[in-house]
Amino acid sequence: MSALEELDVAECERLLRRGVFGRIVLVAGGRPEIVPVTYTTHGDAVWVRTSPGSLLDRYADGEPVLLEIDHVDHERGHGWSVVARGHGERVPEGERSDAERRTSGPPRWVRREDEVWIQLRWEELTGRRTGSGWDLAAGLPVDRIGR
Amino acid sequence: MSALEELDVAECERLLRRGVFGRIVLVAGGRPEIVPVTYTTHGDAVWVRTSPGSLLDRYADGEPVLLEIDHVDHERGHGWSVVARGHGERVPEGERSDAERRTSGPPRWVRREDEVWIQLRWEELTGRRTGSGWDLAAGLPVDRIGR
Question: Which residues of B touch A39 (CB under 8 A)?
Answer without folding.
Answer: none
